Amino acid sequence: MFRNYMRTAFRNLLNNKSSSVINILGLTIGITSCILIGMYIRNELNFDQFQMNGDRIFRVIMEYSFDGSPASKKGNFTSMKVAPVLRRKFPEVKEAVRVDKSSTVVRYGEKMLNEQNFFRTDSSFFRIFSFPLLKGNPLTVLNSPHQIVLTKSAALRYFGKENPIGKTLTVDDEEGQYVVTGLAEDSPPNSQIRFDFLASFTSGDLKNEEETYWNANYTTYLLLRDPKLVGRLEKNVNEFMKTEMAGQGATINYSFEPFRKIHLYSEYGGFEPNNNIRYIYILEGISVLLLVIASFTYINLNTARSVERAREVGVRKVVGAGRNQLFWQFMGESFILCLLAVLISLLAAMMLLPYFNHLTGGELHVAELFSIQIISGAAVLSILVSLMAGSYPAILLTKIIPVKVLKGSFKNTSGGQGLRRFLIIFQFSISIVLIVSTFITHKQLKYVQSRNLGFNREQVLVLPFDNTMFDLLPSIRQSLLSNPHIMALSRTANTPVNIKSGFSMRSSVMPVGKEISVAGNRIDENFLPVLGMQLTAGENLTLQDIKDVEISADSNRVYHFILNESAARQLGWTPDQAVGKKMYLGDQRPGYVRGVVKDFNFESMHQTMKPIVLFPENRPGLLLVKLAGSDIPRTISFIESKWKEFIKSRPFEYRFLDQDFNKLYESEIRFGKVLDVFSGLSIAMACLGLVGLSSYSAKQRKKEIGVRKVLGAGISQIASLLTLDILKPISIAILVSTPIAWMMMNRWLQDFAYHISISGWIFIMAGLIVIFIAMISVSFQVIRAAIANPVNSLRSE
After folding, report:
1. Buried-most residue among 30, 497, 625, 740 (CB within 10 A)?
2. C-alpha span between 148 and 136 (Å, rounded)
3. Which helix H or strand E contains 168, and what residues bound it?
């Protein structure tokens, strides 16, 4: 009997090719989307799950404020002192490790590469984290200065197939030689810590830093003996810090983030870009809704065909077929369709995976498609969709009364029509919500990119700058500025969109210990002109200001500062009042305010404007090169040639300031791209369902249309009549979806300190787009019904 069901099901599918193709297409789109999104979500939820001690690892978060500051500053930074003190003082802490990531030049023989994933860390690293070593003892590979561990890929770059153990690498000229003591497996792609090199933390400049709770530029992780002790530890640590900071005019508190929660739940960045659990929930919802839309499309198309198949069911019942037999026959058709859709979806997912990775920034592999979880999930999906999509059409068709069918009086019930209209309303409501979300997301991103940041980021090249280049800088500057396409050059510690350094600041009338916290950036006299920053009062730094800091002894240094408007305001000055005032940046940098610059966004627009101090000081960092904007490729080639002529200590590498800016909104940009794709898919599938509804409506009203045409109704009148049937559910969908979309996107916009207001035209535009696409989709069915010969319609009735 089962074989007969399958044979009959296949025969019916082949006899109705257009309907079958549309059904399979709709289900394939929905299931493919589910598979790809499911793979992505599975990867995100499994982030760092390979860490055996993951539930006991915590990241230290520092919060500090000065007694005179109105607000505290909080982030994933700590000083060098925190890890050894917490490990020594608190029995809850089994191990602690400090980690620092940098871009570093590594040499071996003639090979010289600028390595982006160079980490410095303590010897406890391998006792906390589960990164397997292929060679070397995890207890000793980093227990002495100038030791280094390479990953397999890094070793291949420098040593080929040779054994790297015992070989020597040069790491930055000032740090000297590092001996390779270990070889590690490559870091998994779903890891917060993705290193190519792990060097001893006590090597280089870091070993010379004074142990203090300030100079907080490092990340600290703790391994607790029991994760349940974290609350007690936090309380005890902060009681301890009250004693440590007594009389220092400042407060420091520490909190501890669960390591496995950082990637999806933390508001503080890490070594790899974080995701947002909210976007994971949205993607989950989108995948489910796309599958529901696909199922509803199947229901609509099959109920539209119910009139055609009614005679078949009537004849089968007359010759003795029972309702159960008919039900399982129709369910068999549904199962075959879903099985075909799943098989095609697996193939489609395999082909689309590279594009999907580009869209989401993921690193999913084809092999994951054939994992037990994905295959079993696809099988379950096939069964669920066949039951969900096939049940209603099967029940509807098996309820047909043979006498009515054979007499030609079969019509579907008004209840069935109501359900089909509800399905259309539901489908288009989802589509409109996604379209509105897409419009608002892109409008906000456009606002972010076009808003006046307080500086000009266009055509600014960012180059690395290290200690070996200080003496060469005048010659480099003169040589580069000889090119008319290069307008200016500036040395800075950080780009203006990535200033993380924190300092204490007070005016001369504020008592010691009553500082306020500010961000700070070391610059030269060309920083403001290169970026087009505007002074509201005072003057820019001069070359003499730079020289004063460079040649004076520490005790005689007098600094000149550029404040932003917010910093001047926090010190109690207007911009004009601030100029010439004496102030202190920490205890080591006394000086005078040279000028006040307009507030500029040195953080993402998720944050409000904050105070910042710009000051001269010689430290390695970056070169900013302002280009004229014409013939950029040739200009970059010129810069590269001069770089190779003057600089032998590092390879030529560059990026544009725009790239740094866009990284601040990486997750939002990806979210916008995902919405683009899936809102388009939702409309496509909703329109497939609409085709079914229009086909059904035309068939059900065939006799009515014939009578109207005989009585003189024109084609435009008939088309308007049928079009009205389509516009009613879409209009209701617009009314239903508008408040839902507004609430969702208004909440999303609240994450930005600076954002657009939601305009009514967005909802009007979304509604018009949906109506236009829907009308195009059903136009063929409407026109065919309107021009049909009424004689044929009445004869068939």
Report:
1. 30
2. 11
3. strand 168-171
The answer for residues whose C-beta is within 8 angstroms of residue 629's C-beta and 6 or more apart is 458, 459
Cα 82 from Cα 703, distance rounded (Å)? 84
Query: Is 675 within 8 Å of 287 (Cβ atoms)?
Result: no
* pLDDT, the chain, mean: 83
Amino acid 206: pLDDT: 47
Q: Which residue has the higher pLDDT, 211 or 56?
A: 56
Q: What pLDDT, on the 0 to 100 scale, is given for residue 636?
A: 93
Q: Is the pLDDT of residue 13 over 70?
A: no
| Least trusted range by pLDDT, from 40-49, 113-122, 295-304 | 295-304
Average pLDDT of 594-613? 88
On whether the CB atoms of residues 59 and 221 are closer than 8 A, the answer is: yes
Closest by CA to 150, choosing from 104, 204, 192, 196, is 196
pLDDT at 744 over 80: yes
What residues have CB less than 8 Å from 210, skipping those under 6 apart? none
Looking at per-residue pLDDT, the higher value among 344 and 630 belongs to 344
Amino acid (one-letter) located at 137: N
User: Is residue 207 very low, low, confident or very high in pLDDT (cuts 50, 70, 90)?
Assistant: very low
**241: confidence class by pLDDT, cuts 50, 70, 90:** very high
Range 59-63 average pLDDT: 94
Is 539 in contact with 522 (CB distance < 8 Å)? no
Structure tokens at 617: 């000081």
- By percentage, how much of the chain surpasses pLDDT 70? 81
Report, in angstroms and rounded to the nearest whole number, the Rg of the chain calculated over CA atoms.
Answer: 34
- Nearest in space to 515 (alpha carbons), one of 584, 572, 608, 561: 584
267 Cβ neighbours under 8 A, 6+ residues apart: none
- The pTM (predicted TM-score) of the whole model is 0.82
Q: φ, ψ for residue 524 (rounded to 5)?
A: -120, -175
d(CA 536, CA 57): 48
Residue the block writes with tokens 């008592």: 511
Q: What does the pLDDT read at residue 2?
A: 54
Q: What's the half-sphere exposure (Cβ side, CA atoms, 13 Å) at 258?
A: 16
For residue 673, give Cα distances in angstroms to 144, 359, 402, 429, 746. 48, 7, 52, 20, 19
Distance between CA 621 and CA 520 in Å, rounded?
14
In angstroms, the CA 148 to CA 177 distance is 10
Question: HEC string of 554-623?
Answer: HHHCCEEEEEEHHHHHHCCCCHHHHCCCEEEECCCEEEEEEEEECCCCCCCCCCCCCCEEEEECCCCEEE
For the record, the structure tokens of 453 come out as 């940041």
Q: What span, in angstroms and rounded, lies between the C-alpha atoms of 669 and 441?
A: 8
Question: Which token pair is 320?
Answer: 């003795």
Report d(CA 358, CA 444) in Å as an integer. 22
Closest residue by Cα to residue 171 from 125, 126, 111, 98: 111
701, 788 Cβ separation under 8 angstroms: no
188-to-198, 261, 716 alpha-carbon distances in Å = 15, 17, 63
CA distances (Å), 14 to each of 18, 54, 165, 337, 699, in order?
A: 9, 54, 66, 11, 22
Are 187 and 50 a contacting pair, CB within 8 Å?
no
